[in-house]
Specification:
The protein has 6 helices and 3 strands, in the order ααβαββααα. With 301 residues, it is mainly alpha-helical.
């Protein structure tokens, strides 16, 4: 009888203390695991949503500069205004000889009507500029012989015709443009005095060269600005792509961690439930065993 009382006393202690504490801890762990699972599900849903990639907009290009290669009649007239000149030292005039017309063989090639007109206009312009139009040769001392007498050689000197041809061929590709420039120059020569014609033609050639240099300098600055815009756009685009890749990697890590958390919480709940099941089975088994022993003893009596 004393054993039965002890069993009942132990059973009451087990029910009131051990199992209550076990159930309390079980529900605490279940609550914590449930909150962890819920948080992990929220993080998992957040990590599944793909990150947004920022749009990189290229800065607008500056307007392309325009530099005109036109020289007006007013500009030429302004350049012809006499300016007080400073006294300069004048050297002796070298001997100038005209080249022989038959000195060099001429190669005749077929030309079209526009080129023929250009040649005729250049010849007409040459009638206004006589002394410095074509190539001239000047004598200069190149050395001395055994008797101390100077040895003269001829040095070719470019004329305005060569400079004008270079300007027309370099800066005005269409032949119609060349014809317009030549007709403009002939018209200018007809309106100014003979002593200013050479100066006017030189001013025209110099103005075209200066404007072309200004155009090249302006285009260089324009291309530099374009390259700067492209470089800045490439840098910002690469930075945006790197930021997008980093965000994708971080979300992938969050997804893995959330899956691990969910799995860990489920395993923890299952493990605690299994432990409590083992305890309940052990208690029930012990109670049945005690009951059977008591029954056997009563039957033997």
């Amino acid at each position: 009888m004393s054993k039965h009382k002890n069993f009942l006393h132990f059973d009451q202690i087990e029910q009131k203390l051990v199992f209550r504490i076990s159930r309390t801890f079980f529900w605490i762990f279940v609550t914590i695991a449930g909150i962890s699972i819920l948080a992990a599900f929220i993080v998992l849903i957040y990590s599944i949503i793909p990150p947004s990639q920022s749009d990189v907009v290229r800065d607008p290009y500056p307007s392309e500069p325009t530099v005109s290669l036109e020289v007006s009649f007013d500009e030429i007239q302004t350049a012809l205004i006499p300016v007080p000149s400073q006294p300069i030292y004048v050297e002796s005039t070298p001997q100038v000889t005209k080249p022989k017309e038959d000195s060099f063989p001429k190669y005749e090639k077929p030309i079209d009507s526009l080129q023929l007109k250009i040649n005729l206009l250049k010849d007409s312009l040459g009638t206004f500029i006589k002394s410095s139009w074509g190539i001239t040769y000047e004598s200069q001392i190149s050395g001395y012989d055994w008797f101390g007498r100077p040895i003269y050689t001829q040095k070719a000197k470019r004329g305005l015709k060569s400079d004008l041809e270079y300007v027309l061929n370099e800066y005005f590709e269409p032949k119609q443009e060349k014809i317009k420039k030549l007709e403009f120059l002939i018209n200018v020569m007809q309106q100014i005095s003979a002593e200013n014609r050479e100066k006017a033609l030189r001013f025209f050639i110099k103005s075209i060269n200066d404007k072309w240099k200004l155009y090249q300098r302006t285009m260089g600055e324009y291309n530099k600005a374009i390259n700067s815009i492209e470089s800045d756009y490439s840098y910002r685009l690469a930075s945006a792509e790197a930021e997008y890749a980093r965000a994708k990697f971080e979300k992938a890590e969050l997804s893995n961690k959330s899956l691990i958390s969910i799995g860990s919480a489920v395993v923890l709940i299952a493990l605690l439930g299994l432990i409590l099941c083992f305890l309940a089975i052990e208690r029930n088994t012990r109670a049945v065993k005690e009951f059977l022993e008591s029954q056997n003893k009563s039957e033997e009596k």
